[in-house]
Amino acid sequence: xxxxxxxxxxxxxxxxxxxxxxxxxxxxxxxxxxxxxxxxxxxxxxxxxxxxxxxxxxxxxxxxxxxxxxxxxxxxxxxxxxxxxxxxxxxxxxxxxxxxxxxxxxxxxxxxxxxxxxxxxxxxxxxxxxxxxxxxxxxxxxxxxxxxxxxxxxxxxxxxxxxxxxxxxxxxxxxxxxxxxxxxxxxxxxxxxxxxxxxxxxxxxxxxxxxxxxxxxxxxxxxxxxxxxxxxxxxxxxxxxxxxxxxxxxxxxxxxxxxxxxxxxxxxxxxxxxxxxxxxxxxxxxxxxxxxxxxxxxxxxxxxxxxxxxxxxxxxxxxxxxxxxxxxxxxxxxxxxxxxxxxxxxxxxxxxxxxxxxxxxxxxxxxxxxxxxxxxxxxxxxxxxxxxxxxxxxxxxxxxxxxxxx
Length: 406
Known about the structure:
Layout: H1 5-32, H2 38-65, E1 68-69, E2 73-74, E3 88-89, E4 92-96, H3 97-115, H4 125-148, H5 152-156, H6 164-182, H7 198-217, H8 225-253, H9 258-272, H10 281-306, H11 314-332, H12 349-380, H13 387-392, H14 394-399
Antiparallel strand pairs: 1-2, 3-4
């Protein structure tokens, strides 16, 4: 098949849309932290993009998409992108191989950036750097290979259109492990940790929503009907989840929360991600409703009952939303959308079991390896800043700069 100019243009544009999601995440997270930690939070997203871009070219891509080795990892044949060029690649024969590399690079960049919300305001920058490189290499790349690169989860028949298991479950579980190992912030549970700028958070959520069209619709890897379908269901699910979260928040707390609407939209985007190319629009609304509800109550449970200081609710939104989305794909998938597999409600209960196995595998793998990585880093350089540095804020103690001079 010849390279399609239209498909290539769409995939490159989608890669650019996904790229904007990483700094958008910085805005989303940055508004939720205190004023003294804004720059450090923005830096986590911004510099993750820089760091992972280089790692992806050197060894990340080949570990994820190199020739399969036992269903577990890719070979080193594409180390440094050797042999990857302008000709079509093995994963899409309608676009240049480098276009596929660029698109997948953006996925690899945002995934560890998501985790940073769990340890915001207390992790040292040195530990963050080591963790990011190790996690992309040892967790993201292998899991990506398992699902999309010819590994055992994909061969089993698990459905993940744009990253429910690969991106959201893996980062959400890593966030729980990181939050537990670093411990609570000094002022956890007090008004001192309230968000400093929700306008920044709403801006970030809006840009995330915008970029997510590239995330999901771009995963069709062609400018075709499937891309249009993924675009529409992505928007529907985000809107339904925002309405749901806001409604529950209004009922529970007596006011329609702006932050709740923004967080709900992100939860819906997470929930529809694995299902975007497999479910009908009505099912996308159900998935959005579920994401808004499940993620709202997960935030409440973790903060107020479990007392876990996942600073920016990464697991509650991305972990829980990703798990729901992956399982919902097993419920609502239909060959009427994408001629791959039917789900439980279309006469194929086995698909739900396959999705469950994939979810459990992603949780176990990310959780165990993340724990090992953090233990090693803690032994070598330590994970957390000193108490006096936390009190002063990471902007000045880690970066020697201030976000605001008022």
